[in-house]
């Protein structure tokens, strides 16, 4: 890794409050522009990142304002990686119901992880020993 890697990151550390979403979105949009994504890709990425931060606030940190959500943006040559980390108990991604199953199609919730997987090139969940959930998402600029 080059020294430049560390100079092309932006880290946000926000309270578990939904009004913080707009700050995350603003930073994401700026990062997308720097990497070279078009408006459509930026829109879909913002949906994925918003869902991830909402999950961190709502499900991870249970809207406990004393808990933080950390968002790390890493600008790469032709890609953007976003990591969202909460301070919750973690979860099993395989336990999340399939939003495309007939019994779930009309529900107004439960599509966050689905959207992340649809709109990003890579989505990974990890659960550090100290607790919390880290969602790592990567999107490449199309050739």
In what order do the strands lie side by side in the largest sheet?
A: 1-2-3-5-4
The end-to-end distance, rounded to whole angstroms, is 23 Å
Task: Supply the number of helical segments.
Answer: 4
Estimated helix fraction: 25-40%
**Given the C-alpha coordinates, what overall shape results?**
globular
Average pLDDT over all residues: 91
* Gyration radius over CA: 15 Å
Largest sheet: 5 strands, antiparallel
Low-confidence stretches: none
Count of DSSP strands: 5
β-strand percent reads: 15-25%
Taken in chain order, the helices and strands follow as HEHHEEHEE
Keywords, separated by commas or semicolons:
4 helices; 143 residues; alpha+beta; 5-stranded antiparallel β-sheet; single chain; 5 strands
């Amino acid at each position: 890794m080059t020294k430049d890697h560390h100079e092309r990151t932006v880290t946000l550390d926000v309270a578990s409050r939904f009004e913080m979403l707009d700050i995350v979105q603003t930073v994401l949009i700026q990062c997308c522009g720097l990497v070279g994504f078009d408006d459509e890709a930026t829109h879909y990425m913002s949906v994925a990142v918003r869902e991830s931060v909402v999950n961190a606030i709502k499900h991870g940190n249970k809207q406990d304002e004393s808990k933080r959500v950390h968002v790390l943006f890493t600008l790469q040559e032709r890609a953007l990686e976003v990591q969202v980390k909460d301070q919750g108990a973690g979860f099993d991604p395989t336990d999340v119901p399939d939003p495309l199953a007939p019994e779930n199609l009309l529900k107004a919730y439960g599509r966050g992880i689905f959207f992340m997987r649809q709109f990003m090139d890579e989505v990974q969940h990890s659960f550090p020993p100290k607790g919390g959930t880290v969602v790592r998402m990567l999107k490449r600029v199309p050739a």
